[in-house]
C-alpha cells in the first residue's frame, strides 16, 4: 500500500480550514441542502478504470515509456487501488482480455476486494492477432467474410464472458476494429449481417444479468469505413439483439462537430444507452485527459444524462457503466487518471446544480436567453469544494495529485517495478 | 416551346458519326450487350427537378439574379419541360408549397403533361413564416413546444398532401429547419417526441399509395443542434411511423467525412431508403452541381444503390425518388441542371458497368487490390457515349448545354420574361 | 435614454452586499491585489459592437424579426449607447458601409459622443450589389478578373475610409466573399494577385495612423474556395502590403478542429494580428453568442493573447481591435450582446489569473500535468464577481440582462419604433 | 531479378493489339500530337518510393504482416527495382534514417544503380527514440524546451544529410511529430522559435545544391497542437530559412475539407513548394493508395501543379520532389504501390489534357459552366492507354499488377525471405 490513513490525514488536515470556508461560500451560493445533496451523490459516483490505461500508450509513430509501469494484472489492480485510496471514486476496474487474463480469478477477485474494487465491464480483443491464433483478424472479426474467423471471434468473446463471470463483472463491452480501408472492399450489408449474426451468438451466451455494450467509432487512421461507425448502427444492432444489448458511447468516437449530447439524450430515451467511455479529444480519437480540451461539452453531456436518467428513474451511480478510456502518452497515467476522474466529478456536480424546473419553464417559453443563463450559471459555479468534500468524507485525499507527488509514489513504483517495466497491452 | 425536333436533329446530325465511333469503342471495351443494357436502363432513368431550383439562389450574404427567371409556376414547368426536351431524363418536377401553389391543379397538370412531365414528391415549408400566418416558426415547427404551432404545421403538411394528390404526386418530402441555436434551448427528447407525434398526425393523412420521406440534415450556419440531424434520427422516426415512412438522403446533409455510401446501403437493407437529393459540396450544404466536387463519391453511392436495389429486387428507375436539390448562385440554373443530370447519368452508367460477380468473389476472398481494380475499372471507363446515345434515342440533344447555348435560350427567356423577373422562393 | 442613474442604483443597491461577499471570497482565493489588478484591467477593456448586429439576422432559409429593431443609424447608436450604459464595456461601435452611411458625420459623431461611444473599425461591403451599381460582385470584387469591377470595389473602400476618417475610426476591416463555387472557375494565383493589387490601391489611401485589417474565412455554404480562406493567405497579403496591414481573426472562420489559439499566438509573434471578431460556433460560421458553445476555447485564445501581448509590450485594451461579430436569429440582439460581452470579460479575467511564471516553469520542465492544473485552476475560478465589480465601479448595472428585462426595454423600443421596424443590413 | 525482358514481352505481346486500338481511339478524341506529347511527358515522370512503405504498416491497435517483407536495405532496393522494372516510373527511392542506414553507401549506390534507381529526398526521424539515445523525443525534438534535445536532433539531421550526400540525394525532408497533447503544455511562440533556430542550424549544413523540405501535418490521434500544423506555418519557416527551404505537401495532412489544390497553387506562386507526398485518405492521415478515395481531388491538385509549373517555367518531371507516402496495412505493398503510381500517372495525363487556353478564356469571361466542362472533359477522358503506352515504350509491363500476380512474385519473395520477415521501420 502506497497510501495510508495517517499520511492522508496529514495531507488533509492543513487543507480542512480552507475547504470549510469554500464550502460555506458555495452553500451561500446554492444553498446548504443542495450542497449536501450533491456531495451525497458524488460519494456514490464511481468511474471504472480500464486496465489498459495504466501503462504508456502511443501513436502509430512512437511510444515513450515512463518507468514503473505495472507489468502484471496484480500490479494493475494495485494501481487502481492506489487511485481509489486517493480519490474514492475509482472503485472499479474494467479488464481487457487477453492483455490481462486472470489466471486465478478467485485470488484476483480477493486482491481487488482488498482494495475495495469491483470488476466492471470486461473487454474482448479481436483487433489484434495473438500468437498461435488459427485465423487472422486482418480483415476483421465479427463481420468477416469467412465464417471460421467469425466463429473464432465469437468463441473469444464467450471466453471473455466466462472470465468476467468469475470476476463478478456484469457486462461485456464490444469494440471492433472491423471496417474497410478501400471502397469496394466490403459489401456493407453483408458486413452488417455477419456482425449481427456473430453478436447474436455472443448474446445467447450472455448471463441473464449481463448487458452487452456495443461501441461505435467513426474513424481511425487507415480506415475508409467502420462497420459500426456511428450511433445509428450501434443502435440498430442493439435493438435487433434484444433488451440486454445497449450502446456504449465513447466521447472521442465521432465525426467532427457531432452533437454528442443529443445522441446521448436520444439513446437514453430509447433505453439503449448502456455505458460511457470518458476522454477528450481535439481532432480524432485522441484519448486525452477528460475535460482537457472541451470541458463545457462534457458538462452538456452530463446535463443530458442527469436529466434523462432522472426522467427514466435511473440511479445516477449505477444506471450506466461509467468508464474512462484514455491513452497516456505524455503524462504519468496515474496523475492523468486522477485529473480525469476529477473532471468527471466536477461536470457531474455542475450538472446537478442546474435548476431543472426553471430550465423546463424557460424551454417551454422558448426563452433561449434564460435557458443559456441557467445552464451557464451552474457551469460557472466553482464546484471544486464539493468534490473535495465528498472525497474527504470517504477517507480520500483533498488534493490527490498533490498527495501523489509529495509522496513520490511514481518513484516508489519505479524502484519496486523497475524503470523499464512495461505494461501489457498495446 | 424553345426546342423543336428539327433543331434537335440539326444539332444531333453532325454529331452522330463521332458518337457511333465512340459507341463502337466502348462496345469493344465492355461488350455490345452490356452497352445496350446500360443504354436501356439509362433511357428509363429519370431525375425530378425541384421547382425551387429554377431561379437564382443565394447565400446569407447576397443573391445575384440572372434574368429571365420563371416567376410563375407555369413558367417553371416550362423550364423543366425545356430540360426534358433536351436531356430526356428530367421528366418529373418536385413542387414546393407555398412557393408554388397550383391554384388550378387540373390546368397545371395538363400543362405539365404537355411537356411529358409528371409530379414527383411535394415539399412543405415550415421553415419560413408566411404573411398572415397565426404562429411563427421561429423556434421550429413539428418539434415546437407549443402545440398550436405544431398543429399549424401539421395542417400545412396536410394541405400540401392535398395539392399533391390533385397533381398526381405520391410522396411528401419533409425537410425541417427545426433545431436549436444554443445549448439548453431544447430538451432533445421532448423535441423528438413532439416531432414524432406531429409526423404521426401527418402520416395518418397520407393516401395509401403515398410515402412520407423524412429528410435529415447535419447542420446549417446558426444551428447548434438539428432535431433530425442524421440518418439514425430519420431512421428512428421512419421506423416508428410505419412502412410508408422512409428516409430521404441529401448528399450535402452530413458531417465532414461521413461515409454516405455506407449509410445508403444500410438504409436500403432496412427498407427505409425512400429518396435521394443529389448535389455536391465541399464544406457544408453547398448545393452545388452534382459531381462537380467529388464525382467518385457519387459513383460509390450509385454502386451501393444499384447493388442494394438489385438485391432487394427494386427497379432502378422507380425504386427510389430521385431528385436534384441544388442552389444556383453563379450558373444559369438550366445549364447547371443539365450538368447535374448528366453527372448523375454518368455515375449510374459507371455503376452499371461494375462486374458485380467478380466483385463479390474478390470480396469473399478479401482480395482488396482486386476489389479496387474492379471498381475503378468501371469508373475509369468513358461512359459519355452511352449517356448521349440514350438521350438521342429518346429524341433529346446529343450535347444539351451546347444546344442551349447555340440557340440562345436564356436570351429568349430574358426577352420574354424580362431581365428582372425573379423566381418565387428563397 | 432608456437607462438612468437612479434606476441603476436601485438595481445595484440590493446586490451590493452579496457582491461584496463574493469579492471577499475571490480575494481570499487569488489575493486582493490580484483582484484589484484584474478589476482595473477589466475597467479599461472595451469591445466594439457592430452596427449590423442590432437587428435580426437570418439563415439562407428564413429570417424572423423581433420588433423594435433600429431602422436608422441614430437608433443603432442609441442601442449601443444603451448597452454601454448597462455594461460599461461596449463603448465603441463598428460601422458597416453602405448599410449605415453617416450622411452627416459630425452630428453622428456628436450623438455617439453623447453616449460615450467612439467609432472602431469601419467595414466595407463588396459582397452584395447595391441598386444602381455599374458592375456586379457576383463573381467577386477585389479578386475579380475584370479590372473595372476591381476598381469599383477599390473606390468603395476608399469611400469607406473617408467616412471612417470623418467619424474618427482608425482602421478598415476588409471581409470579402470573393471565392469560387466550382473547381476550374478561378485561377487561384491570378485571384490572389488581383486581390493583392487591389489591396495595395486601398492601402495607399490609408491615413498614416490607420490599420488595414484583412479578414479570412474558411467557408460558407455555396463555396468551393475562398480567396482569403485561412490565416496563411491573410498573413501573406498583410505582409506584402506593409506594416499597417494586419490580419483579423474571426473565431468562426476556420475549418473543423482548427487550433485557433495557436494561430493567434503566431500572428501576434509576427506582429500581424490586428483584430478580433468574437462569436461562437458549433459547425461553421454560426455567429452565435460568444462563449455559448465552447467557453474553454475562448479562454485558451485569451490566454494566448494576454501572454503574447504582454511579451510584445502591447496594452491589452488597445493593442488589438476587439469586436463582436454575431448574428441574432433567435435572441433579442441586445440581450445577446450583453451575454457576449459578459463571456468575453469573464474569459479575459480568467486569463489574467493564470500564474504565468509557474506556467512557464512547468513548460520548461515539460511537466504537462502541472501545466494543465495551472491553466484549469484559473479557468475554474468563478470570476463573475470581478466582472460585476468592474461594471459597477464604472456606473453600470450589476446584472445587465436582468436590468434590461425588469425595465421592459425591448417593449419600450417596440412602442417607440414599431413592431415591424427592420434594421438595415442583411 | 524477378522480372526479365522475355517475360515482359510475353506479357505485353498479347495486349499490344488492344492497346493500339485504344490509342487510336484516344488519338481521335484529343489528337495524335497531343497523345504523343502526353506520352513523352509521362515517360519522363518519376515518383520516388519511400523505403518505409515496403513492409506492413499498422494502426495504433494492430499490425498484420504479410510475408516476404524486405528486412534489409538491399532487399528494399530490390523491391523498388522490381517496381521500376514493371512500371518504369518508380526510378527513385526515398530513404528513412535510421530505419535504413546505408552502412556502405558506395555499394548501396551501386546496387541501386544496377536497378536504374537514384536516391531522392532523405528523411530523418526524431519522432521515435532509438536505443542508447541520450535524450528522449517524448516532448518533441527541434521545438524542445531543452537545448540538449534540440542539439541531438540537429546532429541527427546533419548525419542524415551526410548519408544523403553519400548516396547522391539532393534534399532533406523534415517531418516532425513535435506538438503538444494538452492546452498549456507548449508556449506556441517559443516552440516556433526553437524550431526555426534548430532548422537554421540544419540549413547551415545543407550542401549548396540541396533543398530542405519542411512538411506540415494537421493532426494525428493524441495531439492537441502540431508545431508545424499547416501550410502557413511551413511557409513561414521556409521563408525565414532561405531560398533552398521549401514546403512539402502531403495530401493527407490537412484539416477536414481543406482546399489542397489552392494551397498548392499559392505555394508554387511564392516559389515555396518543394515536394509532394502522394496518398489518399477519408478521415485523417490514412495513408491509403493514391486515388482510391477521391481521384478528382488528385486531378485538381495536378491541374494546379501543371498550370503553376508551366507558368513558372518549371519542368514537370524535376521541378518538384514527387514521392509516395503510404502505409500498407491490408494490401501487398508492391501491388499497392503499383496502383498508386498508376493513379498518379493517370491524373498527370488527365491534367495535361486540359485545354489551358480555353480554360483561361472561360475564366476571364467568368463562364463557370464552361470552366467546369473543360475541366471535366479532360478528367472523363480514359487516359489509361496513354499511361500503358508510355510504360511499354520504356520496357515496362502493360498491366503491372497482373504481371506481378501471374508470376507469383510475392510467393517467390516469401520463399526467399521467409514468411515472417519483417521490414524495419514502424
Task: Determine the strand fraction of chain A and express it as a percent band.
Answer: 5-15%
Strand order of the largest sheet of chain A: 4-5-7-9-10-11
CATH architecture of chain A: Alpha-Beta Barrel
Count of alpha/pi helices of chain A = 16
| Secondary structure: number of strands of chain A | 11
Categorize the overall geometry of chain A: globular
Give the low-pLDDT segments of chain A: none
Major beta sheet summary of chain A:
6 strands, parallel
Domain Xylose isomerase-like TIM barrel (chains A, B, C, D): 100-287
InterPro entries (chains A, B, C, D): L-rhamnose_isomerase, Xyl_isomerase-like_sf, Xyl_isomerase-like_TIM-brl
Organism (chains A, B, C, D): Flaviaesturariibacter amylovorans
Protein name (chains A, B, C, D): L-rhamnose catabolism isomerase
Describe it.
Chains A, B, C, D: Keywords: Isomerase, Manganese, Metal-binding. Chains A, B, C, D: InterPro entries: L-rhamnose_isomerase, Xyl_isomerase-like_sf, Xyl_isomerase-like_TIM-brl. Four copies of one chain form a homotetramer. Chain A has 426 residues and is α/β, with parallel strands linked by helices. Helix content of chain A is 50%, strand content 9%. Chain A has a six-stranded parallel sheet with strand order 4-5-7-9-10-11. Chain A has a three-stranded parallel sheet with strand order 1-2-3, covered by helices on one side. In chain A, strands 6-8 form a two-stranded antiparallel ribbon. In chain A, strand 9 (245-250), helix 8 (260-269) and strand 10 form a beta-alpha-beta unit. In chain A, helix 12 (356-364) packs antiparallel against helix 13. The longest helix of chain A is centred in the first third of the chain and has 26 residues, at 5-30. The model of chain A has no long low-confidence stretch (mean pLDDT 96). Chains C and D meet through helix 6, strand 8, helix 7, helix 8 and helix 9 of C and helix 6, strand 8, helix 7, helix 8 and helix 9 of D.
Amino acid at each position: 500500500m502506497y497510501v495510508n490513513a495517517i499520511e492522508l490525514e496529514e495531507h488533509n488536515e492543513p487543507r480542512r480550514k480552507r475547504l470549510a470556508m469554500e464550502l460555506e461560500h458555495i452553500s451561500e451560493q446554492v444553498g446548504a441542502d443542495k450542497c449536501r445533496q450533491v456531495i451525497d451523490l458524488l460519494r456514490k459516483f464511481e468511474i471504472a478504470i480500464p486496465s489498459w490505461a495504466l501503462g504508456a500508450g502511443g501513436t502509430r509513430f512512437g511510444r515513450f515509456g515512463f518507468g514503473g509501469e505495472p507489468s502484471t494484472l496484480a500490479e494493475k489492480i494495485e494501481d487502481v487501488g492506489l487511485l481509489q485510496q486517493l480519490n474514492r471514486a475509482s472503485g472499479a476496474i474494467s479488464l481487457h482480455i487477453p492483455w490481462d487474463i486472470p489466471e486465478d480469478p478467485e485470488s484476483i477477485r480477493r486482491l481487488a476486494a482488498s482494495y475495495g474494487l469491483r470488476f466492471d465491464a470486461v473487454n474482448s480483443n479481436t483487433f489484434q492477432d495473438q500468437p498461435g491464433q488459427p485465423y487472422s483478424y486482418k480483415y476483421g472479426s465479427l463481420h468477416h467474410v469467412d465464417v471460421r474467423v467469425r466463429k473464432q471471434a465469437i468463441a473469444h468473446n464467450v471466453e471473455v464472458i466466462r472470465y468476467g463471470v468469475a470476476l463478478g463483472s456484469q457486462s461485456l463491452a464490444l469494440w471492433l476494429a472491423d471496417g474497410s480501408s478501400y471502397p469496394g472492399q466490403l459489401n456493407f450489408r453483408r458486413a452488417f449481417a455477419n456482425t449481427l449474426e456473430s453478436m447474436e451468438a455472443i448474446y445467447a451466451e450472455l448471463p441473464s444479468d449481463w448487458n452487452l455494450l456495443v461501441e461505435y467509432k467513426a474513424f481511425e487512421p487507415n480506415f475508409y469505413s467502420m462497420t459500426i461507425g456511428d450511433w445509428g448502427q450501434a443502435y440498430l444492432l442493439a435493438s435487433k439483439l434484444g433488451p440486454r444489448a445497449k450502446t456504449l458511447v465513447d466521447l472521442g468516437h465521432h465525426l467532427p462537430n457531432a452533437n454528442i449530447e443529443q445522441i446521448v439524450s436520444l439513446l437514453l430515451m430509447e433505453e439503449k444507452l448502456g455505458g460511457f467511455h470518458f476522454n477528450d479529444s481535439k481532432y480524432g480519437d485522441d484519448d486525452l485527459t477528460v475535460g482537457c480540451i472541451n470541458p463545457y461539452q462534457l458538462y452538456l453531456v452530463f446535463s443530458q444524462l442527469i436529466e434523462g436518467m432522472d426522467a427514466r428513474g435511473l440511479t445516477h451511480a449505477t444506471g450506466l457503466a461509467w468508464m474512462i478510456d484514455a491513452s497516456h502518452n505524455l503524462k504519468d497515467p496515474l496523475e492523468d487518471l486522477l485529473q480525469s476522474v476529477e473532471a468527471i466529478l466536477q461536470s457531474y456536480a455542475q450538472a446537478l446544480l442546474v435548476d431543472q424546473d426553471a430550465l423546463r419553464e424557460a424551454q417551454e417559453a422558448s426563452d433561449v436567453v434564460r435557458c443559456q443563463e441557467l445552464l451557464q450559471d451552474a457551469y460557472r459555479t466553482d464546484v471544486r469544494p464539493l468534490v473535495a468534500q465528498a472525497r474527504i468524507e470517504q477517507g480520500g485525499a483533498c488534493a490527490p495529485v498533490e498527495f501523489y507527488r509529495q509522496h513520490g509514489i511514481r518513484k516508489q513504483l519505479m524502484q519496486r517495478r523497475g524503470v523499464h517495466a512495461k505494461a501489457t497491452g498495446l
